[in-house]
Amino acid sequence: MALISALLAIALVVTLLTAVLGGFQSRNELARYDKHREISREAAQSILEYGRFKLEEDQNWLAEDPLVMEAPKDARGKPIFITDKISRDESSLGDFVISAQGRVFLPDEVPFELIVTNNFSNDESARGLRPHTGTLEVSTSFKGSRVHLLSNLKNAPFTNSTVAASGDISIRTSSVEFGTLDPHRNQIRSKRNVMLPVVENMKFRPDRNWQRNEKGTVWAFGEILVGPEDDPLPLDEAGTITGARFVPNGRTAYNVPTLKSDQVGADPKVDTIAAMSGGNYVVGRREIFFNDSSGTVHSRNVAVVMVDGVDLYFHQGPLDSSIPGIDYTTVRLKEDSPPLRANPLSEPKLSIGPAEFVLTSDVESPCLVKFPAKKKVVCETDLIIQGTSSKDLPLIDFVNPERDPKPSKGHLQVTEGSLSLACLVKNAGLLMAENDVNLQPADIEVKASVTEDVAIYAGHDVNIDPSLVKPSLDFAASSGRKLSFHGLVYAGNDFNFDTATGLFRPDGTSIDYDRDIEVIGSVVAQGEMKMRGPQGALLTYNPEFLNDVMEKTVRGGSKRLEVISTLEL
Question: Could you tell me if 437 and 476 are in contact, meaning their C-beta atoms sit under 8 angstroms apart?
Fold first, then answer.
């Protein structure tokens, strides 16, 4: 019996010892597996980083010569990896797939396979990829430990924010809506403070393809105030109501991107430059006085163009039909004023440089100011175009050739001064000035194309308010369409939108400008950003207008790529 007990005890000890040794062996095998997997993952990540670096340097990497893939070397001159095989599957330009097989040295040799799916240069979706995106897919295997990584990339736009400013952002319009056409972001960012309307008048609208619960982010290096400054709403409550995140007192300052005038491109189809003299062009209708051959004084209300208050251009047609023997040398604005240097026109068209002023005799039609869309119109000094009254606002139109299947946009630039427009604007592609861009809040629709990116560029301030218009001109309240800008709106200093003017007409009544502002693209200011008025603001982030600007703002014409996500499959 004792012998049996002893044998059972020995068997139990052997069993326990076997289990312990087996545990040690399993743990050792697990440790070796983890080490092998870590080596395999390190190899995969190194190939991903190298591929992203090369695609930033050249987005046609491996496309032109798929048989060549450089072997990068370490500090001692030894290759980091070598490539054994490269193959290419191309369906169209800007849409191709590259496969590469090789070995990484860490110093252990790790086989890898890299697949590059490239749609970075394409404006259309291809192979299931959105425009300006691509993927890097890497598989590695080291001693049976396999790692498979997929990195989704996109061209980094000029800015990743719906609204961005280095100074305070103060939006005190009656309402504001922050929207986005990007499935990954809808951001309002300031290096200082952000002041927003009451939460009931604020909305965050995500992209229809938004895959996350987050609707948007308001980020500030300083404070964020929602509602009245003396009684702001707690941010956690504002977040609950709007669904957005409010992040005050950010730990790292957000650097607003800088854009210089020589980095702003034009439509590729704009191939010529046309010079135009700067000055103050006043367009509309005026009462003029003149003599006939007998010396009798007559007056007429005519369509006119005045340049710097001196030269007068007018449509002479209505005068010829009613009064014989007109002495044009006597034309003046007042009966007792000296004669102006009048320029009678036999046709209601006047060309001043590349601009064509169409002086219609119809009192209900605005004067057209036509700029050619195929030319870059450049003024060296200040350019102002305005009307004689609110009823006579000129209409600036960037006219495309009738048979142009792909119409180009216009380009109006002031190189050493400011651009001021107190008029209607349509079909513009780029309004640009080295100093300020001033716009009176009339009907304005400025649309950049995705190849131009920029709708407004000001080296100093962008001002959208009636300050250019004097109350003595009796401008009536504006109402109707919103002020619409499609593209990047960039201010090298401050951005100001203010329709709560405090201006008054001669009879003492206030001038209220009933206009919303809409920007589809992004609004960027190196200084402060202020929006104020009785109406609303609709600000929608659209990276499609911001992709190509980045190419001109980084060295060597390269492009920065953003990592949307990296998945381990």
Answer: no
Greater confidence (555 vs 228) lies with: 228
Nearest partner of 257 among 491, 545, 496, judged by Cα: 491
Q: Is the pLDDT reported for residue 352 higher than 70?
A: yes
In one-letter notation, the amino acid at residue 189 is R
Sign of the torsion formed by the C-alpha atoms of 58, 555, 256 and 52:
positive
| Distance from the Cα of residue 281 to its chain's centroid | 30
Report helix, strand or coil for 423.
Answer: coil
Per-residue model confidence (pLDDT) at position 476: 47
Token pair, residue 76, equals: 């001692």
Per the structure block, which two tokens stand in for 420? 């001021």
Stretch 556-561: mean pLDDT = 64
Mean predicted confidence (pLDDT) in 159-187: 90
pLDDT digits (tens, 9 = 90+) for 287-334: 888 888 888 888 888 888 888 877 777 776 655 556 777 777 888 888
Q: Tell me the Cα Rg of the chain.
A: 33
Q: Decide: residue 387, CB within 10 A, 0-12 exposed, 13-18 middle, 19+ buried.
A: buried
- Would you say residue 218 has pLDDT above 90? yes
**Contacts of residue 382, Cβ cutoff 8 Å, sequence gap at least 6:** 278, 279, 280, 414, 417, 418, 419, 420
Number of Cβ within a 10 Å radius of residue 528: 20
Residue 173 near residue 203, CB atoms below 8 Å: no
**pLDDT, greater one: 206 or 382:** 382
Q: What is the DSSP string of 458-499?
A: ESS-EEESGGGS-GGG-PPPPBSSPEEEEEEEEESS-EEEE-
Tokens read off for 542 = 């659209």
Joined together, the tokens standing for residue 218 give: 């308001």
**pTM for the whole thing?**
0.77
Place of tokens 């006119």: 304
User: 31 CB contacts (<8 Å, ≥6 apart)?
Assistant: none
